[in-house]
């Protein structure tokens, strides 16, 4: 797990190694164990290294294989790199390191860009071919590892974070108005290729982009699981018990794969079903002395601030080395400001500050953790999924909008300044296009596909990556193992919706976990002081929305902002997001990143 950056020019000039160096330096936290730069004519690559596999300098990046004519910058982990290395050795390749980066290089040489289909892991990479001048960019199936891009007529730049691209220079501060519409509709996430800045895009998940020396590009999407039963005859005739056993076996394999490391692996243990299942399966694998980590906050506004009672139960059951972090109120605002600076894009979820604070402590003990993110999207654990049961496909978009959207298109005129309004419902159109695509059998199947392919990538997945990597901590997410996701996509919706959601996982867990954990009311990372905006946090938000930069930018209607500030906790979206925090976070992020 690291950070990569680079530039390729199309105008006959040499690559700007200074800009690539600034981008690389901006990602120091992602890779505190080493740094490297490489350039050849129109191409330059940069890398920050976090040592996880092959701790020697033989695994340093950018990695050059002169015999093959390839240079790579790689972020992530190939969990099956050992098996691939043995296969490639059998095909005549010789290795100078024991790293997964070198396996990536050899695999690319042997199979070309199709090598991605053989990888089991999380990854974003850039590979330059010396003899053709071609650059290949790729991202893993679930979009766990990020890649941001900015392009003009003369060059393409890319990096593992948006702030790194800003550090390279040449990125304007114009707001993408369609992305702003998404931000205001989808609880701050911007799905698809857009970002909140008009000059920056994202490489989509499960995509290989080939960039020729003359600047022409082509994309290939290499993975998209069908959300149907009929298209997968191997699952025909499976009963509920068969599905439970199949899911359990895939989850076991996913957890086992993510134990691959040359450093200790811990678990972020919230006390919820998902992280508790990971602990149980690691114990089943014989993992001894496992370190687990939980976080709690002071109560506020009548909301509890921790779930230690559940995480303690799991830690005691499996004999883990458990660490509890209780956050004092005085720590919150400084931590929140640091968390905002660590965001590649603005993210309003109050989970961010929890992950940021927890990651800071966890990184003092381990370098790799497993985490339960993704289970709710993959196995239908959220409140907006049950209303879709039995709904006709043509009604799916309307039901999803009612249950999930923060607000409808018409409400934007009350909130945004006129110059930031758009004439069409871009967010509704995005959802309708996605749900109408072939390959989903029911309304719920279509919405789960939307969540997994688009919404999840730019909310919980990005949140975990940003907050853990701010402290050089690698987070691995077994519920996003692509083999498990493929199986879950085919799993009958009624098995996922059972027991109030995630029914198939709950059935599995009943044989592994305390009943109190399985049957508890669904919880979230509790940060009451962010959900209930008051005291120093309210002043922070007030200052951000009234700052000269905010007034000059003029994103929001001033009278609407004033109403929110007068009643900071009375305005909430249908899923409970504090509207004042939603707006304030965007300005906090823009100001923290120096966007003008």
TrEMBL record:
<dbReference type="GO" id="GO:0006529">
    <property type="term" value="P:asparagine biosynthetic process"/>
</dbReference>
<feature type="binding site">
    <location>
        <position position="268"/>
    </location>
    <ligand>
        <name>ATP</name>
    </ligand>
</feature>
<dbReference type="InterPro" id="IPR051786">
    <property type="entry name" value="ASN_synthetase/amidase"/>
</dbReference>
<comment type="similarity">
    <text>Belongs to the asparagine synthetase family.</text>
</comment>
<dbReference type="Pfam" id="PF00733">
    <property type="entry name" value="Asn_synthase"/>
</dbReference>
<feature type="binding site">
    <location>
        <position position="100"/>
    </location>
    <ligand>
        <name>L-glutamine</name>
    </ligand>
</feature>
<keyword id="KW-0547">Nucleotide-binding</keyword>
<keyword id="KW-0028">Amino-acid biosynthesis</keyword>
<dbReference type="InterPro" id="IPR014729">
    <property type="entry name" value="Rossmann-like_a/b/a_fold"/>
</dbReference>
<dbReference type="InterPro" id="IPR001962">
    <property type="entry name" value="Asn_synthase"/>
</dbReference>
<dbReference type="InterPro" id="IPR006426">
    <property type="entry name" value="Asn_synth_AEB"/>
</dbReference>
<keyword id="KW-0067">ATP-binding</keyword>
<protein>
    <recommendedName>
        <fullName>asparagine synthase (glutamine-hydrolyzing)</fullName>
        <ecNumber>6.3.5.4</ecNumber>
    </recommendedName>
</protein>
<feature type="domain" description="Glutamine amidotransferase type-2">
    <location>
        <begin position="2"/>
        <end position="214"/>
    </location>
</feature>
<dbReference type="Pfam" id="PF13537">
    <property type="entry name" value="GATase_7"/>
</dbReference>
<feature type="binding site">
    <location>
        <begin position="371"/>
        <end position="372"/>
    </location>
    <ligand>
        <name>ATP</name>
    </ligand>
</feature>
<keyword id="KW-0315">Glutamine amidotransferase</keyword>
<dbReference type="InterPro" id="IPR029055">
    <property type="entry name" value="Ntn_hydrolases_N"/>
</dbReference>
<feature type="active site" description="For GATase activity">
    <location>
        <position position="2"/>
    </location>
</feature>
<dbReference type="InterPro" id="IPR033738">
    <property type="entry name" value="AsnB_N"/>
</dbReference>
<feature type="binding site">
    <location>
        <position position="295"/>
    </location>
    <ligand>
        <name>ATP</name>
    </ligand>
</feature>
<dbReference type="GO" id="GO:0005829">
    <property type="term" value="C:cytosol"/>
</dbReference>
<dbReference type="InterPro" id="IPR017932">
    <property type="entry name" value="GATase_2_dom"/>
</dbReference>
<dbReference type="GO" id="GO:0005524">
    <property type="term" value="F:ATP binding"/>
</dbReference>
<dbReference type="GO" id="GO:0004066">
    <property type="term" value="F:asparagine synthase (glutamine-hydrolyzing) activity"/>
</dbReference>
<keyword id="KW-0061">Asparagine biosynthesis</keyword>
<dbReference type="InterPro" id="IPR017535">
    <property type="entry name" value="Asparagine_synth"/>
</dbReference>
<comment type="pathway">
    <text>Amino-acid biosynthesis; L-asparagine biosynthesis; L-asparagine from L-aspartate (L-Gln route): step 1/1.</text>
</comment>
């Amino acid at each position: 797990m690291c950070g990569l950056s680079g530039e390729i020019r199309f105008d006959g000039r040499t690559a700007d190694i200074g800009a690539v160096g600034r981008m690389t330096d901006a990602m120091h936290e992602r890779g505190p164990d080493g740094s490297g730069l490489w350039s050849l004519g129109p191409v330059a690559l940069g890398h920050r290294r976090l040592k996880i596999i092959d701790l020697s300098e033989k695994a340093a990046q950018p990695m050059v294989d002169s015999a093959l004519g390839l240079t790579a910058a790689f972020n992530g982990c190939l969990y099956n790199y050992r098996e691939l290395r043995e296969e490639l050795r059998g095909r005549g390749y010789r290795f100078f390191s024991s790293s997964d980066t070198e396996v990536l290089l050899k695999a690319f040489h042997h199979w070309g860009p199709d090598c991605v289909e053989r990888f089991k892991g999380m990854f974003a990479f850039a590979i330059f071919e010396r003899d053709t001048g071609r650059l290949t960019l790729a991202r893993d199936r679930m979009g766990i590892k990020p890649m941001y891009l900015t392009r003009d007529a003369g060059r393409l730049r890319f990096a593992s974070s948006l702030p790194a691209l800003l550090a390279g220079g040449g990125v304007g501060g114009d707001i993408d108005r369609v992305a702003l519409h998404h931000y205001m509709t989808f609880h701050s996430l911007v799905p698809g290729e857009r970002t909140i800045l008009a000059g920056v895009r994202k490489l989509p998940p499960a995509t290989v982009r080939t960039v020729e020396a003359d600047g022409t590009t082509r994309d290939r999407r290499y993975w998209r699981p069908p959300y149907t039963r009929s298209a997968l005859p191997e699952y025909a005739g499976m009963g509920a018990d068969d599905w439970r056993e199949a899911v359990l076996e895939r989850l076991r394999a996913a957890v086992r794969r993510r134990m691959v490391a040359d450093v200790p692996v811990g678990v972020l243990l919230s006390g919820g079903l998902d992280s508790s299942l990971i602990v149980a399966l690691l114990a089943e694998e014989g993992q001894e002395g496992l370190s687990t980590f939980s976080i709690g906050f002071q109560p506020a506004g009548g909301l509890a601030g921790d779930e230690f009672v559940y995480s303690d139960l799991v830690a005691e059951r499996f004999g883990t080395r458990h660490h509890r972090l209780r956050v004092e109120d005085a720590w919150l605002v400084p931590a929140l400001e640091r968390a905002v600076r660590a965001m590649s894009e603005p993210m309003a979820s109050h989970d961010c500050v929890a992950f940021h604070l927890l990651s800071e402590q966890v990184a003092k003990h381990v370098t790799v953790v497993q985490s339960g993110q993704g289970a709710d999207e993959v196995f239908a654990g959220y409140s907006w999924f049950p209303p879709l049961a039995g709904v006709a496909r043509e009604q799916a978009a309307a039901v999803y909008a009612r249950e999930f959207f923060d607000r409808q298109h018409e409400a934007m005129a009350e909130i945004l300044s006129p110059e930031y309004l758009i004439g069409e419902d871009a967010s509704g159109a995005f959802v309708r296009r996605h749900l109408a695509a072939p390959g989903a059998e029911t309304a719920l199947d279509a919405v789960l596909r939307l969540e997994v392919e688009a919404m999840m990538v730019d909310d919980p997945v990005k949140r975990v990556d940003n907050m853990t990597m701010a402290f050089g901590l690698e987070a691995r997410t077994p519920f996003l193992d692509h083999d498990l996701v493929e199986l879950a996509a085919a799993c009958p919706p009624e098995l996922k919706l059972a027991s109030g959601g995630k029914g198939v996982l709950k059935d599995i867990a009943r044989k592994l976990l305390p009943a109190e954990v399985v049957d508890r009311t669904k919880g979230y990372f509790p940060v009451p002081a962010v959900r209930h905006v008051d005291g120093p946090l309210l002043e922070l938000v007030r200052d951000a929305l009234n700052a000269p930069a905010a007034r000059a930018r003029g994103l929001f209607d001033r009278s609407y902002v004033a109403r929110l500030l007068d009643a900071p906790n009375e305005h909430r979206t249908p899923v409970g997001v504090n509207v004042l925090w939603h707006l304030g976070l965007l300005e906090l992020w823009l100001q923290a990143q120096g966007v003008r």
